[in-house]
Amino acid sequence: MTSTVLRRRTLFPGLRGTRRVLVVAAALTVLALAGTFLLDPFRNFQLATAAAYFCATAGLTLLIGMSGQLSLGHAALMATGGYGYALTANALTEAGVTGVPRFLVALVVAVVTATLVGFLLGLAAARLRGPYLAGLTLAVVVAVPAIATVWSGVLRGDQGVQTAYDPVPAGLDRLIALEQWQAWVAILVTAVVVTLLALVRRGSLGLRMRAVRDDETAARLNGVPAARVKVTAFTLSAAGAGAGGAVLCFVTQSVSPGAYTLAFSLLLVVAVVIGGLGSIGGAAIGSVVVVMLPWLVGAGTAALDLPADLEQRLAGNLSVLVFGALLIVVMLVAPGGLAALRRRRPAPLPTSQPHPQQTPER
Amino acid sequence: MSQHIPARRRIAALAGASALALGLAACSTPSAAPAEEDGGGDATGVTDTTVTIGTHTPLTGPAAAGYSSISAAASAYFDYLNDNGGVHGRSIEFIVKDDGYNPANTQTVVRELVQQDGVFAIVNGLGTATHGSVLDFLNQNGVPDLFVASGSTAWNQPEEYPWTFGYNADYIVEGAALAQYAADEHPDATVCVLGQDDDFGDEFIEGVELAIGADGIADIQRYSVSTQDVTAQIGAMQAAGCEINMLATINGFTALAVGTAAQLGWFPMWFSSSSGADYPTLVGYLGEEMGPKLLQGFTGTNYAPMADDDWVALFRTVNDEYNGGAAFDGNTIYGMSVAYLFAEALAAAGEDPTRESLVAAVASGDLKGNGILPLSFGEDDHAAYLGVGITKVDQGVQDYIDASYAVEGGAVTAVEPQPVALTGKGLPAS
What we know:
The complex is a heterodimer. By secondary structure, chain A is mostly helical. Chain A has 17 helices and two strands. In chain A, strands 1-2 form a two-stranded antiparallel ribbon. Chain B has 14 helices and 13 strands. In chain B, α2 packs across α12, α2 crosses α13 and α9 packs across α10.
């Protein structure tokens, strides 16, 4: 990953290792928080949504790009986090707990639940490959509405679970609007989650993941516990998805199966592929694209002043088409994903796997 | 690459500093909210010549075929109204956004309507689960949330949701009316319920129980919108020996239930809530061939004008002229009726309407609407209709029969319909 090394050194060249990741993360977080002041409430809502997606796509890009396991079921893991958050938050509200403590406890429960589910899935995943693994994860996401219906007493079927909203904390409420506060929370949670994932990515576990991805047998011969590495990768990415689901539930005060369909799951995969597999920056770009594209398409068709029935037919369908087209174009023009475009040198060809020994020095 | 480093560094530092500076400069975010006009009211979305309103509705997804004609009909009525001078000289701009009957999409499109498009009010947002997900948002932001296209009792909570008003007769009323009618006409029949797996189904069942008691229902089955198959439920109902099937289903699932039963060679009586009882829509699903045969005697509830009524004649003309002659069905009448009611409310809100005066106009209880029973809006009542008429399909015509019920004080009583006569061209007096 020569190009990655070059890119990394352009910002804060004096720093290295973990400290470098932390400083970059802190700087980007502050920038993002400051950026919320420039946005109107709807844009802040979109930013918060993108941040929530980023939690999930960062985990997913780690899983697919680094450990070589494909998951089409990450929407289900996000849903797990969302339901975990909503049910815990509601239970806490009844117990009289509100505000920040409620959010933190519910967030932790959401992440732990999603992590557990991810661990169980990962156990199965470590024994499966390629299409079989994709099939398993596909089944999980297809089952979400059925699960919500079967346990409709708790999960409330298609209607989903609503939670009470957390107002802007006293003291800040004169300074910022609700959507901005929600964006702040989303950004902070995402910063923690993504920073941890970035540390894993560049650490020894990341190295082992790449080894397992490139040649499992060779990795085993070198003493890498391949199955354990794969399960760990799955579990970690599930934690990211769980946090994303919890943040999304915090922002919208509801979780429902309709939000986590198969299409959404595929969209997450599309996001990391468009952004650039294995790249955290690419995951960020991908999640912004996923949030902005349907809105842009909607705004575009509205501006075109199409006949009412054509507009009706396009609504909701056109953005899926555009996603497909965008995926094809990106794969043809920039096989390394959009993240590779901002590098000075062209990304390596998609067929040439990055060599583990060229990964950043530690 | 080394020669680029200092430049990059400087840019990064500069960007960070300027973002912070801008951030501190823009500390006024909250007060940038609603534009306070003279009189202290909020007139977001109102200009000298226009009033912009919006709605969320399924144009795609499982409920689209049954409901997408509602917003088109409302748009057509507004076009007709605008061509006839609008309300207080302002034309109404109606923004329709698709949510695919999916609560997650509803949240996005409604935020977009309120925060991006700056609508004056949300009018006739469709769906119980979908609209439920934006109820808090709309009320926290003080956006009039008028005439929700759902019969959930959730809209009738003036204390908690002062900005929200329903439009449909609530599902408790519909369930109670149908069950009472069944008890009056078929006292010995075995009654069962097929309900949607959300508040729609829950409240309908509550209504049925109100009229005939919990032990009056032989079997209750539920379905989920995301699973397009009710064979198991219909099979269970047949096995339970149901003779009258009460339906809390959206149009698509009413047709699915009737069609599935017919495939099993089973022909019970069907009693449906108004949300899933529109005859032309059902025939559209079941086919011109089989539909009329399967739906003969189909019983439903309604409160809007039907069959040969002056309102219907007017709406038919408006549909031909402003809606490209689209198929004319109960949804068309429903959509235009809601649009008329909104126009009436806007006219009553005064020369310079504000969000406050609009809601006050609805809560005043002075609106007439065009239903067969008086509107029940008031300070303490945000439900539109507390009673319904029973409709029946006979030889391909769906119309009221001589039976209307209202729910008052937790009891179902028979009432006389009092339809509002059409005056002039069906335009609100302003």
